[in-house]
Write a structure and sequence with these properties.
56% helix; 506 residues; two-stranded parallel ribbon; mainly alpha
């Protein structure tokens, strides 16, 4: 996949997350070389320039002599590789590397072409640094995580190769690559930036887009199981309000129900004037989710294509300008938005599950079992869904409103983007299981309406589920059923069966 720095679209970042290998557009290489040459010319002038011939952070006033410049860059990598916790998932780490590659290739960081080439080669050969997930506050760059990435490039630490952890130096040697020898500015350029936070946030928004679509399908299943109305999805209602996401969501829900024999069976004699909000307000809630995710995606794609290094090198004037592009506030805000969206997808789905298991609301057998009392049916799966929803509510508190001073108060306001983005993967996994439970419950509810069937797309989804999980006649071990349904929620097969649904970007 060709990576054009500064102009990489949403779909390409998603493809990299899913396993595509990026290669740089050759047109960017002259700018990389000129940026490195500019660092050399700046050094010749002998002026103190932050991060090139000075210390870092609070030690920026300490001048470093020419003979120590290489040691300075190596030392910053080793000293800053202080992360803790479980390693980044490999797909997210690959995405972080690709984000750093695209940023360096903009030609504003002063790194040598060979440095960019090594990062590109590691991605191509599947050499993924082991990066502890905790240690960044999302300002002055994601220093600790990116230091672990860079340490692997100089042969220190470990890499994941074909699923196994290997000493970094051996991994490089086995791949025919030499450890990087850092030149002036290069250690700082590799450490400084928002790529750790941005990678996690992007990974989460890719998952959230999938979950939004899956929730439309499970929501329609629940609507059909409860013999709910499609009138609230009428296009005319939503055009009057005007929100794009709401309009598109309503159209998608109505389309999913089109041709349903279950819906047709109660269209003329429906005594229920209005459905509960969890059915009736799906366009309003899920449409707002879609709009929010689109806004977050726009922020993250801008960030992914930008340069968040410091100082920045302007080769046309041989200047190194110190600023604050490393501050990850935009990513932190986007991560908080994604957290809200994930929380609401799961929350609305759980309310539909609760509605289905309550015979007073659904008109179905209690807890969706043919023999209530002898069997508990979906009693405890609903409790599990409720537990996951509450866990996500606790995690959805905005991370961006927190700050803690670091580096002897030199870095006195931080974004907490790393924490805000890292939590999202687990929140998405919770939503996977909430929707899995709704998929099972909705299909079970529709089974009670046999021989009536839903629409073609909904029946295609039910067929996929029933090929793995039969109807629940008598109580059985539920965990395997939930896991099977969760695998289906995570698969492309479910969305392919449902047909075209709204998304974030082409």
């Amino acid at each position: 996949m060709l990576l054009t720095p500064g102009a990489v679209p949403y779909a390409d970042w998603r493809a990299i997350y899913l396993g595509a290998s990026p290669s740089l557009d050759p047109a960017c290489r002259p700018a990389i070389a000129e940026s490195a040459a500019a660092v050399g010319r700046i050094l010749v002038r002998g002026e103190p320039v932050y991060g090139i011939n000075t210390g870092f952070g609070k030690l920026a006033s300490v001048r470093i002599e020419a003979e120590d410049l290489a040691a300075l860059q190596r030392n910053i990598v080793l000293s800053h590789a202080a992360g803790v916790g479980e390693p980044m998932p490999v797909p997210v780490a690959r995405l972080m590397m690709a984000l750093k590659l695209a940023s360096l290739a903009r030609g504003a960081s002063g790194v040598a072409p060979a440095t960019v080439a090594l990062l590109e080669a590691m991605l191509d050969k599947g050499l993924i640094p082991v990066v502890p997930g905790k240690g960044s506050v999302g300002a002055s760059g994601d220093l600790a995580p990116l230091a672990h990435m860079t340490a692997a490039m100089i042969g220190v630490g470990e890499m994941v190769v074909d699923g196994a952890r290997v000493p970094a130096e051996k991994a490089l040697r086995d791949a025919g690559l030499a450890p990087l020898e850092l030149g002036p500015k290069e250690g700082l350029a590799l450490l400084n930036g928002t790529q750790f936070s941005c990678a996690y946030a992007l990974a989460a928004i890719f998952e959230a887009e999938r979950l939004y679509r899956a929730a439309l399908v499970t929501g329609v299943l629940s609507t059909e199981a409860a013999k709910g109305s499609d009138t609230p999805f009428d296009h005319r209602i939503h055009v009057l309000r005007g929100h794009a996401g709401q309009i598109e969501t309503a159209d998608a829900l109505r389309g999913l129900m089109a041709g349903s024999a279950i819906r047709a069976s109660h269209r003329s004699n429906d005594l229920r004037v209005q459905d509960p909000y969890c059915l009736r307000c799906q366009p309003q809630v899920m449409g707002a989710v879609l709009d929010l995710l689109r806004q977050a995606a726009a922020t993250l794609i801008t960030e992914a294509n930008g340069v968040s290094d410091n100082p920045l090198i302007f080769a046309d004037t041989d200047e190194a300008l110190s600023g604050g592009n490393f501050h990850a506030e935009p990513v932190a805000f986007a991560a908080d938005m994604i957290a809200l969206a994930l929380c609401e997808i799961g929350s609305l789905a759980e309310r539909r599950i609760a509605m289905l298991v309550d015979p007073a609301l659904s008109g179905l057998p209690a807890f969706l079992t043919p023999k209530p009392g002898l069997n508990s049916g979906f009693m405890i799966p609903q409790v599990t869904a409720a537990a996951l929803v509450s866990e996500n509510k606790q995690r959805a508190y905005p991370a961006s409103v927190d700050s803690i001073p670091t580096s002897a108060n030199q870095e006195d306001h931080v974004s907490m983007a790393a924490h805000g983005a890292r939590r999202l993967i687990e929140m998405a996994a919770n939503v996977d299981h909430i929707l899995a439970i709704e998929l099972l419950a909705g299909a079970q509810g529709c089974d009670f309406h046999a021989p009536l069937q839903s629409s073609g797309p909904v029946e295609a989804v039910r067929h996929l589920l029933r090929a793995q999980v039969p109807m629940l006649d008598d109580d059985r071990h539920m965990a395997p059923d939930i896991e099977a349904a969760a695998r289906l929620i995570r698969s492309l097969a479910l969305l392919e069966a449902a047909g075209a649904l709204p998304g974030l970007a082409a």
